[in-house]
Design goal:
Layout (H helix, E strand, L loop, with lengths): L2 H20 L5 H12 L5 H7 L7 H14 L10 H14 L5 H11 L9 H11 L8 H16 L9 H4 L5 E7 L6 E6 L4 E2 L4 H11 L6 E3 L2 H11 L9
Parallel strand pairs: 1-4
Antiparallel strand pairs: 1-2, 2-3
Helix pairs in contact: 1-2, 1-5, 2-3, 3-4, 5-6, 5-8, 6-7, 6-8, 7-8
């Protein structure tokens, strides 16, 4: 049997064990993977016992068989990996083999890791939230599918997250909208989002002086309509510091 087949069989066993560590009540895949190892000429005394075990056996029976098999095959180091990270890695490898869709991967992460789980896994939990609000967001399903694939590749290669969920975790910058003129001469109502505050400046200097305290960049100032824009420019003139265009 080629070494490649044996390597693939032990890799499948490692992934099955990683998933079992997160859900010890389900050992079917571990037992099936042990049997596939025997077919691929991977052998050890405890591996044979594991391949012949029943998934209905008590975890107290199966756990020593699994740990003994890993010891005999020189795979015991995998137990030092965080259980959530190990299981997620197994799921991501299945994703790369097209056994999982991007949506299924992040849904699995949300269900099995959750927002209180391992920090490195959180990007996939966040991506599930992002899929849930895609209908009213600036990103689409195709973006999320691509970002999930990029995050999966980085995770499996041991690289830092590309930060694809930054758009989700970082709150939008506050904005200011200049609305209709008020009864007082030269004053206009300015609405700040998301705080809901309102201002009533009577010049660009007054408005500009209020923005730093509210955390609003001057580039985030807009007009409610073209009509209001014309009224403001007539009353206040051209805004200082604004782009030439």
């Amino acid at each position: 049997m080629p070494d490649l087949a044996r390597d693939e069989a032990t890799a499948m066993l490692a992934d099955a064990v990683s998933l079992w560590r997160l859900s010890p009540g389900t050992a079917n895949e571990v037992i099936d993977a042990a049997a596939q190892c025997l077919v691929a000429d991977v052998d050890s005394p405890t591996l044979r016992e594991l391949a012949g075990a029943s998934p209905r056996d008590s975890p107290f029976v199966l756990k020593p068989l699994i740990e003994g098999t890993l010891h005999e095959l020189g795979m015991l180091d995998m137990l030092s990996v965080d259980a959530q990270r190990g299981a997620l890695g197994a799921v991501l490898r299945r994703f790369e083999r097209n056994e999982f869709s991007a949506r299924e991967v992040v849904r699995w992460a949300h269900s099995n890791v959750g927002h209180d789980g391992d920090a490195r896994c959180q990007v996939f939990v966040d991506l599930d939230d992002m899929y849930g609000c895609v209908d009213y967001s600036e990103f689409g399903t195709e973006d999320l599918d691509r970002w999930t694939a990029e995050e999966a590749k980085a995770f499996l290669e041991g690289r830092p997250s590309p930060g694809r969920t930054t758009v989700w975790r970082t709150p939008p910058s506050p904005t200011a909208v200049i609305c209709s003129p008020m009864r007082w001469r030269r004053r206009f109502e300015v609405r700040i989002s998301p705080s809901g505050r309102t201002l009533s400046p009577r010049s660009w200097n007054e408005l500009w002086g209020s923005l730093p305290e509210l955390g609003v960049p001057w580039r985030n100032v807009s007009f409610e309509s073209n009509r209001v824009r014309d009224q403001v420019l007539k009353a206040w003139g051209k805004p200082p510091g604004a782009p030439a265009s």
